Amino acid sequence: MLRVGLTGGIGAGKSTASKELAALGAVIVDADLIAREVVEPGTEGLAALTARFGETILADDGSLNRPALAAVAFADEESRTALNSILHPLIGQRTAELLAQAPADAIVVQDIPLIVENSMAPAFQLVAIVFVDEAERLRRLTDIRGMDEADARARIAAQASDEQRIAVADVRLDNNAAQESLVQQVQQLWHKRLVPFEKNLRERTPIRPRPIVVEPTDQWTADAARLIPRLWLTCGASALRIDHIGSTAVPELPAVDAIDIQITVADLDVADALADALASSGFPRVDEVTAEAPKPEYVGGEVDPALWDIRLHASADPGRPAYIHVRVVDTPGQRFALLLRDWLREDVGAREEYAALKRAAAARISDEMSLREAAQVYSDGKAPWFDHAFARANTWAQEAGWRASAH
């Protein structure tokens, strides 16, 4: 199934987005509702809270008096830790039960206010935030909900900042205008991105964009910064390092709008063992790509072609094409991916030369060509330059005392 994290600051209108997603067919798992469910009268959760904090946290009808609980549970760090140790496992267990009940082809939207605060974003294949400027949220909380201004400001300040939310968001739903605008954005997200993403995920269909060279944007760095934590969570200790590579990792360099990321592993057995996990996380394998063309050995002699073996995966998300290159540590291809990136970052002349080459290669592609034909024309147009760049980059590395940076 496709798991989507939905979040937004207090007063942003997240509930409106959640209701529309439910109407479109999403399975909604609401963290706030679950948090209330696990402490209803007669539950294990309420019994544990009463045992820890006393019966003063109960209302006259035996239900939980939330303000009374807050007064004692947030009085000190020990009490806060005790509260979390009771509630979090119960919420996690109930969430897992609801996920297990969802159909295999479901689009599950987990409505969680504290995705950012609890560092949960990497657990989802896509994160959407409902975004409203802080001043507008304050107005809505005070004018519409009747909240005291000081209380509203305190609640906003206690949550993640707008910048922190934007940093983890694959999709930003702007709710600064009328509610109808938000509904339209949700509908477009559903039909144009979530539905095809789920289908690609279920069928393990990688997205391979047509090679159209576009001007550089800072968004590429931000997108890679979101993808890499997801890949770390998927790979765990199987990954030795994960790096943003390729043209989108080089500032001021035009590129095809697809993020390239390299996962370095100990051997190809590890790479193959990761295939299912990567596919389930939204990065199915590109089965026809198993090796790269060997480049001239910069220290002389022949190179075993097997050293250029690779496992290539690609994103199933139509809204963010990405290639995941899984290579073995210390092989020529693994090293060159890092070296080329760092060399092009430093050498303006080489960067401009490569940019011109990329544009020329893309210009040879006609509208009549299939995706496969277009990709081959683009690759063939760059191949001769890479053979020379391999030696030039290694000369630069020796002169500069290069060591691969970790980003």
In words, what does this structure look like?
The chain has 15 helices and eleven strands. Helix 1 crosses helix 9 and helix 3 runs antiparallel to helix 5. Helices cover 50% and strands 13% of the residues. The radius of gyration is 25 Å and the shape is elongated. It is of the alpha/beta class and 407 residues long. Strand 10 and strand 11 form a beta hairpin. It folds into two domains: 202 residues, P-loop containing nucleotide triphosphate hydrolases (Rossmann fold, 3-Layer(aba) Sandwich); 188 residues, Beta Polymerase, domain 2 (2-Layer Sandwich). A five-stranded parallel β-sheet has the order 2-3-1-4-5, with helices on both faces. A four-stranded mixed β-sheet has the order 7-9-11-10, sandwiched between helices. The model has no long low-confidence stretch (mean pLDDT 91).
Main attributes?
13% strand; 50% helix; Beta Polymerase, domain 2; elongated; single chain; Rossmann fold; 5-stranded parallel sheet; 11 strands; alpha/beta; 4-stranded mixed sheet; 407 residues
Topology:
Blueprint: E1 2-8, H1 14-24, E2 27-30, H2 31-37, H3 44-53, H4 66-73, H5 77-101, E3 107-111, E4 126-131, H6 134-144, H7 149-158, H8 162-168, E5 171-174, H9 179-203, E6 213-214, H10 219-235, E7 241-245, E8 255-256, E9 259-265, H11 268-273, H12 275-280, E10 311-314, E11 322-328, H13 332-346, H14 348-363, H15 371-400
Parallel strand pairs: 1-3, 1-4, 2-3, 4-5, 9-11
Antiparallel strand pairs: 6-8, 7-9, 10-11
Helix pairs in contact: 1-9, 3-5, 6-7, 13-15, 14-15
